[in-house]
Design brief:
Blueprint lengths: L2 E8 L7 H15 L6 E7 L8 H8 L4 E6 L2 H4 L3 H14 L2 E4 L4 E3 L6 H34 L12 E4 L2 E4 L3 H12 L5 H8 L3 H10 L7
């Protein structure tokens, strides 16, 4: 078997790629029988929604040398349907297989399975739409809270700061959103979240129950 590529990406500097690395390398071992010496790891930390990332670009430059690339989910390799289509075309041209774990997709060069192709494109549309909706809900939530006089007095909500009486995202906003999403999905307890964000469980509860719109939840 040829070299196996592993691509992982997180959206903020505060997040860790370890969970994705564990899932992708385990998949490569169990499904592709690939040893550690056969794996080439590419990683990115980016808040953008495009594919102009150093790890991604390195992987694409090496694509013809790779037999298969494994990613955790379709949103890790692209969050734009335009970029997703371009990525799929380049994999086809390089004769490289793409395996996407969460969605169970195996895109093989020359495979004309219309179901796989349609599902791949559809999931890309959903990933891009979801990202746009989260951004929109966050903006709307912030606007609604700014209109509330409560926010012009007292402390700013978790993950936010105040500037001239207006609510703005704090430096750790992305980290806060990630932690709250994990709590909402039962991947982390409120106690663990409070410890991670150096706050109280009641603050975590308030953020989730009273102000989810602020975090795109």
């Amino acid at each position: 078997m040829g070299q196996i590529g592993i691509y992982v990406r997180v959206s903020t500097e505060d997040q860790s790629v370890e969970r994705q690395l564990e899932a992708t390398t385990e998949y490569a071992d169990s499904r592709l029988d690939a040893g550690v010496d056969e794996l080439e790891i590419y990683r990115d930390k980016s808040t953008g929604t495009d594919t102009e990332r150093s790890g991604y670009q390195s992987m694409m430059a090496d694509l013809e040398e790779l037999e298969t690339v494994v990613v955790k989910s379709i949103s890790r390799i692209s969050r734009s349907i335009r970029d997703l289509d371009r990525t799929a075309e380049r994999f086809e041209e390089a004769d490289t297989e793409l395996r996407i774990i969460d969605e169970g997709l195996e895109l093989k060069p020359g495979d004309e399975d219309p179901y796989q192709t349609a599902l791949f494109q559809l999931l890309g549309v959903f990933a891009e739409l979801e990202a746009a909706m989260i951004r929109m809900r966050t903006r709307e939530g912030i606007a609604a809270r700014q209109a509330n006089d409560d926010y012009h007095h007292g402390r700013a909500p978790l993950g936010f700061e105040k500037a001239d009486g207006r609510l703005i995202e704090g430096k750790n906003y992305d980290h806060v959103v990630t932690v709250l999403e994990m709590v909402a999905k039962d991947e982390m307890s409120k106690r663990q979240a409070a410890r991670e964000l150096d706050t109280t469980r009641s603050t975590i509860g308030s953020a989730l129950e009273e102000r989810p719109g602020l975090y795109g939840l």
